[in-house]
Amino acid sequence: MSFDLILQNADVHDGLGNPPRRVDVGIVKDRIEALDDLSRATAPKVIDLTGHTLCPGFIDVHSHSDVYALVEPSAASKITQGVTTEVVGNCGASAAPLHGAYRLPADWGMHTCPGTWSTVAGYRALIDQVQPAVNIALLVGHNTLRAGVVGYEGRSATAAEMQQMKDRLHASLDEGAIGFSTGLIYIPGTFAPRTEVEELCRVLAAHDGIYTSHMRSEGAQLLEAIDETIGYGRVSGARVQISHLKTSGRENWHKIDAALDRIRDARDREGLEVAADRYPYVAACTDLDILLPDWALDDGHAAILARVRDADTRARMRAEMLAAREADYWASVTVGSTHHADTQRFKGMPLKQVAEQLGVEPVDAVFYVIEKDELKTTGIFFGMSEDNMWRILAEPYVMLGSDGSIHAPTGPLSHDHPHPRAYGSFPRYLRAVLDGKTVTLPEAIRKMTSLAASQFGFADRGVLARGYRADCIAFRRDRVQDHSDFVRPHQLSTGIELAVVNGVVTLRDGQPTGARAGHFIANH
Ligand SMILES: [Zn+2]
Fold first, then answer.
1. Using CB atoms within 10 A of its CB, is residue 311 exposed (0-12), middle (13-18) or buried (19+)?
2. Gap from CA of 467 to ligand 1 centroid (Å)
3. Are 190 and 183 in contact (CB under 8 A)?
4. Which residues contact 520 (CB under 8 A, 6 or more apart)?
5. How far away, in angstroms, is 392 Cα from ligand 1 center?
6. Cβ distance 200 to 212 under 8 Å?
7. pLDDT by residue (tens digit) across 15-41?
8. Is the pTM of this model over 0.90?
9. How far is the CA of 230 from the centre of ligand 1 (A)?
């Protein structure tokens, strides 16, 4: 027997949750051809993995790397976590299709890409041309779709606009998108009535696509939002993924039992295909301007900025922001990425400290920074319970999703201040598993591989078995460790020693080989 690549002497986890076996893995081109004793077989490349654990490559089901995969195709922050496939286009925002008034989010739009696109087919072609180090699968963002047809106006779509959104979603799914995502806390998704999401989910279900949602609420209205999300699956028949499931805000931590009960009921009693993902951190990261009152976020970027700059409106917003939160709330917020030269020094700094340096109250520091940065500031929000995080992660239908984009310690994506989840989610979780803090290793690997593959429709990935794609990784149990933190985020994880993507050795001895063999993964 001869192969292109043999991986020998590792403890092999198949990704299905079975106990490990000591077998060799034989790869031909981009497929796994044999799991057996291959000591007599030959291959031009044989890698001895004595002392290593081998498993399918991890699937990051919740990523925002859409444009970053083109800007930094080495995918350094992801491949060093053992991630071999990313699902992009989450939370309602995707790189394609680009139409009408839709503009890429500021953090994507500021980078130069090695080509242009407007449709999903165009994006797909560019990904396959650039070949990032990891595979990319795309969800169509609802905000992207809606802004392209209705713009950023705060109103319902007309019948003609609704038809146009459905047609574009249909075309995008035909061109290879695997699903549809909503971000119902973000403009203009907030303006969509439920019937709009339902109709779009029906188009999706006809293509067997997956529906993912950054729900309308993750705190005060968490349970209502879970009901709404599950409801879309019930009426349309689409598979449903609750993105970054959490109980946000101390006053909502007690809702964990009711939240998990609702999901279990939907799965067990109704047989709905509802699942969720989570990153292993208790701080969230999003635009700092979400601290503004809801009404202040209407009508797009220019309108929001005008309100921030108008003294009377600002005073009204300020009063509402203070009234809506406890006095100690502000100590739980840290500034993330900033843009203006005057705000660079606040990157990664707790809001309280920013306020002290400016000699103002924390709420005024928010206004100062977002006005200077023209709303391009991100915030890191410490509002989650660690106990609830582990309870969520232990649920058998919950998979890992970093909610982070590709970064690298050098190059164009090394200058901002990302949440450490972008660099550390998978090794951080794996470390906790290896230290006995949560589920068993076979179960944890299943969550990061076959569970994710089946939920997102990757028929030939996520399992180490004959005929599957050769996406696999090997790690040293004693060395697995994340290093990125909130102060110094640009730190690669260690301990993932080998990554093979579509049969190509992409990481060896913990170092990127320079090879890039990722594909666009289409839904057919
Ligand atoms: Zn989100």
1. exposed
2. 34
3. no
4. 123, 124, 127, 128, 135, 136, 137, 138, 176
5. 16
6. no
7. 999 999 999 999 999 999 999 999 999
8. yes
9. 17
